[in-house]
Protein 1
Amino acid sequence: MSNHTSAAVFSRWLGIMFAYKKHAGSWAYILHRLTGIGLTVYILVHIILLTTLLKGDRAFNEEMAFFRTSVFLFFEWLLGSLVMFHALNGLRIALIDLGNGARYHKPVLVFVYVLGIIMIAGMGFLIFQHA
Amino acid sequence: MANKYLFIGSKNSGASKWFMQRITGIVLVVLLIGHYILMHATPDSGHTYQAVMERLHSPVWKIIDLTFVTLGLWHGLNGTWNVIRDYEIKPAWNMTIYTVLVVTGVAFWFLGINTILSF
């Protein structure tokens, strides 16, 4: 049973993922799950980092100055792109599940990708204009 | 699942969680738009101790932040559980992962509300 190591399980999972024919929404489904897990990890880190507020103004302002460096601004932008995709595609899922979205989910997906790229570019402008 | 009819017609079908995942998602999108404007359009309003303190001393902002932490954690961890549940995992592992997710949620929720309610 050597194929039960986590690396083997993961590569088998990847194999299955790539073996499926990708219809509209298949990549959105994969991306939605990956970005969702990434954002969940981020919110945990976020909560830990904000406990610095309890240590007073100097500690907090020093921490914020550290995260205003251009490396972290870039990471913030990356994070923002995960948020934008997850939010837009999440609204698409809500439309399909709670509304009549199944009838028009493909055009909406194009809308998600186009608007997503525009919003990510806009976010980059918003973040880096203060750099 | 040992018995595939186990949860049919019961309150534990997961339907309410499925529904709440959508509702919390929509609410989080609305909250995030405000969050991004606050944090990035005018960075000083989000990133200085002074500005954060001014917000945290207002009950309205406290309620908004508490809602944000609660919904964000629940949506994220419930979503992680949704992903894991889609794969056939041994029941013992399933239990372990579920417990870890619940404990993580409760612990970080207390950490978050402690920060908000300390001011």
Note: The CA atoms of residues 21 and 83 of chain B lie 13 Å apart.
Protein 2
Amino acid sequence: MATTEDDLWKTAFSRLVPWTIKRHGMSCPDAEETVQEAVRLFLKAGKTVDPANAKALLDALGSQINGIAVNRRRNKAMQAVQLTADGSLTAADPAPGQEQQVIDDQLAKRAVSLLLDRVRSDDIATAIVIEMSGGNDVPAEQARAIGCSVADVYKGRQRLKAHVKAVCEKMEAP
Amino acid sequence: MSRKGRTDKELWTALACSDDDLLDPDMPESLVNQELLGVGIDPQALAERAIQFVVQAKEDERLSWQAEAQRTRERLKSLVAESNSRLRHDMTRAEILTRLDELRRADENIGSAIRMAARKRKPEESSDSELRALLDEMEALRAIERGGRS
């Protein structure tokens, strides 16, 4: 974990860039630029960092990045909503990643069922799904409940994420 | 701790948001590096760029007052130049005195500055060029005051 301020900034960039790519559907250069913009705003606001508290910096910058991304989407949408030649409006494309958030009960039931089917040979991933279905989302608590290391839980969550993505793709396929 | 069970919809939403693991400092660095390599980013190169960027951003922030001061200076200079360019070069002594009187009455601060100047030397004791220099200064002061309020 970060011990000096330099380590903390390295940690922040190494986590925030891939997070921004995934969360906001950005390209690598766009994500890195967005993280840089968030850091500039953070420094401009006169905020200081505590190398012993990486979580505080990640949360502060994560929230700043969300704000920047939302503003960019809004601006893009406003630009995209233009009058066409016949006077009608053209609508903007939906924000990336948002289609995944709108899901009805039946689809969710089917998605969870497909997911459990996919992970049935992966004990830790299955146990994580069970823990999450009970409302336990915290990796350290999941590790305690499952009886494995926190690192194993994170690895399991990575595998689970790949399975979730695969289920999404399968359900979207015609 | 007792927890309420989730519906499939709630569970699926929670699963779909698991990218937030990256914001958890307890997530092992080896997995973070895997994520970076997975999207085609070299972790070491990103770390180097991050430090370079932060050093530069801090320096820019430290010097940002200078840029702001420079902008203000340029703006005031152009206001002064603009106000001086509006004055005719061939104003007579009577016209200069009339204009000084107008300025004195129109603006309290400028009025005070003119009175201070008059205490040092009365208008009737001043040469035309001294009066003209005073008028230029007062017009500049007025332009700066107005610019500072805008």
Note: Chain B touches chain A through 48 residues (CB under 8 Å).
